[in-house]
């Protein structure tokens, strides 16, 4: 296997983006990613597109986006791994380069979720589990799936609604420093606790918004990095993955996501690191409880101690492992297919130490970062380790 | 942000005809007030929901067994913000219970006040035909 580096990143503003269609939105990430890498569209032979779709009009976004961005002729495919689609597409590009099949690839994550009304978006996301057995008769929603985990975690470990709120407060704090975030304002614990219930115990501010956004990354082989004279390549050290049952009723418990445990251990083993080596991480905080589960599942702390990490500020800048200092899915927003690509773009920026404002730049010791990207409710999981 | 100009697409209304021939006894059983499920004849694995093929040993020789439906709530949520196709329903409680046969089920929990729903609550999974004729099942508290 050859070494693979991230050599270019691009990221649109996340939010309600009814000023652009899917292709125009993707362009906002593609152009800066190519410029960052010093390349033109003709240089890119393979383009995995990460987009779940159905909430916007184009059924074949890969071809529409490629045409719009001058990438027609490249190998194209649209990936689906629910909210982990972006990471799955990065994996495809990574393996294509590592295997020697191509020297360059660009992953484009793009999602337009605000072209349908909210009940329709809630319906389409809610169907993403096992439609026949958990949606058809029971109308499960995505917040409801995570609420089942919140209730179990509260029951077993004494986690409180205030603990959940702390995740939202932390991530909004960093979202307020990120000019590309959907929500750029700080909130208080009271704001979270007094917001209306979506799926008890999760309230409005426990949930990530329904967001439009795009992100793109250019990956290159080591030979190509040298040839192009890239001065700050960020290497993909490892990608771990796993999955969980479609039916939530078939899981062994509801206090964690087994797929996160397995994917993270696989990644640590390949990269030969342990969680203590990580300088900065993004974890999949689609709901506040999800960030707490993630701390525990990826081994940042012991099971049941996620809330303690939060209370002690261990996952803030200045703490042991700063987590989601771009605002996370919670405040930056979660355009489903784009999220995994956005994580890689953000962590590349962190590892290059070029985050602006510098108040949300994590201090680097080992120059190692981790992206934890869950699809559905632990239906899919990808964990990517990056190193400068 | 101010309203942006948009073009309204042509509407698309999709209804799927979901095959149930391999689990027909389950759906027929609901009309008789029973909860049937499948058990693999080869490896003995019990399934809920019922399946036509065994993911454990890949055998397609399944037998039908009736579940007692008795179980205990492991977790639950009250769904307030509902999907488009559930807009006419009042808020509902969804629970996952482990049944005494060892399998789990996810279903609505009815017949109990929201504040009385707790992890550990003893429930029974019962068959139900809705007024619209939909075949379903729900948890009821065991008094």
Task: Write a concise synopsis of the structure shown.
Chain A has 388 residues and is of the alpha/beta class. Helices cover 38% and strands 18% of the residues of chain A.
Features:
heterodimer, A: 388 residues, alpha/beta, Peroxisomal Thiolase, Chain A, domain 1, two-stranded antiparallel sheet, 11 strands, B: mainly beta, OB fold (Dihydrolipoamide Acetyltransferase, E2P), 2 domains, three-stranded antiparallel beta sheet, 6% helix, globular
How would you describe the overall organization of this protein?
The complex is a heterodimer of chains A (388) and B (143). Chain A is 38% helix and 18% strand. By secondary structure, chain A is an alpha/beta fold. In chain A, the strands form two sheets. In chain A, strands 3-2-4-7-1-8-11-10-9 form a nine-stranded mixed β-sheet, with helices on both faces. A two-stranded antiparallel ribbon of chain A has the order 5-6. In chain A, a hairpin with a 1-residue loop joins strand 5 and strand 6. By secondary structure, chain B is mainly β. In chain B, the strands form two sheets. In chain B, strands 4-5-6-8-7 form a five-stranded mixed β-barrel. In chain B, strand 7 and strand 8 form a beta hairpin. The A-B interface holds A 15-16, 18-19, 57, 115, 117, 119-120, 122-123, 126-127, 132-141, 143-144, 147-152, 155, 196-202, 247-250, 253-254 and B 1, 3-4, 6, 9, 18, 48-49, 74-87, 89, 92, 94, 96, 103-108, 119, 134, 136-137. Strand 5 (197-200) of chain A pairs antiparallel with strand 4 of chain B, so a sheet runs across the interface.
Query: How much beta of chain A, percentage-wise?
Result: 15-25%
Q: Look at the structure and give the CATH class of the largest domain in chain B.
A: Mainly Beta
The strands making up the biggest β-sheet of chain B line up spatially as: 4-5-6-8-7
Termini gap of chain A: 18 Å
Low-confidence sequence ranges of chain A: none
The largest sheet of chain B is: 5 strands, mixed, barrel
The CATH superfamily title of one domain in chain A = Thiolase/Chalcone synthase
- Most extensive chain interface and residues per partner: A-B, 45 and 36 residues
- For this structure, the CATH topology of one domain in chain A is Peroxisomal Thiolase, Chain A, domain 1
- Residue runs with pLDDT of under 50 for 5 or more positions of chain B: none
Query: What's the CATH C level of one domain in chain A?
Result: Alpha Beta
Helix run count of chain A: 14
Q: Give the total of beta strands of chain B.
A: 8
What level of helicity do the residues of chain A show? 25-40%
Work out the helicity level of chain B. under 10%
Based on the structure given, which CATH architecture of the largest domain in chain B is correct? Beta Barrel
Looking at the overall shape, the CATH architecture of one domain in chain A is: 3-Layer(aba) Sandwich
Distance between the termini of chain B: 53 Å
The percent range for strand residues of chain B is 35-45%
CATH-defined fold name of the largest domain in chain B: OB fold (Dihydrolipoamide Acetyltransferase, E2P)
């Amino acid at each position: 296997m050859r070494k693979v580096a991230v050599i270019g990143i691009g990221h649109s503003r996340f939010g309600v983006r009814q000023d652009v269609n899917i292709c125009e939105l993707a362009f906002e990430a593609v152009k800066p990613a190519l410029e960052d890498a010093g390349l033109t569209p003709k240089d890119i032979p393979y383009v995995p597109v990460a987009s779940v779709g159905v909430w916007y009009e184009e059924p074949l976004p890969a071809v529409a986006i490629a045409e719009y961005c001058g990438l027609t002729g490249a190998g194209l495919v649209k990936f689906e791994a629910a909210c982990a689609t972006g990471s799955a597409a990065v994996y495809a590009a990574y393996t294509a380069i590592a295997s020697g099949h191509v020297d360059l690839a660009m992953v484009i994550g793009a999602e337009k979720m605000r072209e349908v009304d909210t009940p329709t978006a809630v319906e389409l996301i809610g169907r993403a589990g096992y439609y026949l057995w958990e949606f058809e008769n029971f109308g499960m929603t995505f917040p409801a799936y995570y609420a089942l985990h919140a209730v179990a975690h509260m029951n077993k470990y004494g986690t409180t609604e205030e603990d959940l709120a702390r995740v939202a407060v932390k991530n909004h704090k960093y979202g307020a420093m990120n000019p590309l975030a959907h929500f750029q304002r700080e909130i208080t614990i009271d704001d979270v606790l007094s917001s209306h219930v979506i799926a008890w115990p999760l309230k409005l501010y426990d949930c990530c918004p329904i967001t439009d956004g795009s992100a793109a990354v250019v990956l290159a082989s080591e030979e190509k990095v040298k040839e192009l004279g890239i001065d700050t390549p960020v290497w993909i050290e490892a990608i771990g993955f796993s999955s969980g049952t479609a039916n939530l009723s078939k899981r062994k418990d509801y206090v964690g996501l087994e797929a996160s445990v397995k994917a993270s251990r696989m990644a640590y083993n390949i990269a030969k690191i342990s969680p203590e080596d990580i300088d900065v991480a993004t974890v999949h905080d689609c709901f506040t409880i999800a960030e707490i589960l993630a701390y525990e599942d990826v081994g940042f702390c012991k099971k049941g101690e996620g809330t303690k990490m939060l209370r002690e500020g261990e996952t803030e800048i200045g703490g042991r492992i700063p987590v989601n200092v771009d605002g996370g899915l919670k405040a930056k927003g979660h355009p489903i297919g784009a999220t995994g690509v956005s994580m890689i773009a953000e962590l590349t920026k962190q590892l290059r130490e070029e985050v602006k404002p510098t108040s949300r730049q994590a201090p680097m010791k080992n120059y190692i970062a981790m992206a934890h990207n869950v699809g559905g409710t632990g239906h899919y999981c990808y964990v990517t380790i990056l190193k400068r | 942000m101010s309203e942006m100009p948009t073009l309204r697409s042509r509407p698309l209304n999709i209804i799927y005809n979901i095959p149930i021939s391999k689990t027909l006894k389950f759906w027929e059983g609901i009309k008789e007030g029973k909860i049937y499920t499948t058990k693999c004849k080869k490896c003995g694995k019990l399934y809920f929901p019922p399946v036509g093929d065994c993911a454990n040993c890949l055998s397609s020789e399944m037998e039908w067994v009736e579940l007692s439906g008795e179980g205990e709530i492991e977790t639950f949520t009250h769904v307030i913000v509902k999907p488009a196709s559930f807009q006419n329903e009042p808020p509902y409680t969804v629970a996952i219970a482990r049944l005494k046969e060892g399998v789990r089920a996810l279903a609505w929990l009815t017949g109990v006040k929201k504040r009385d729903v707790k992890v550990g609550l003893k429930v029974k999974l019962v068959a139900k035909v809705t007024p619209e004729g939909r075949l379903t099942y729900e948890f009821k508290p065991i008094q």
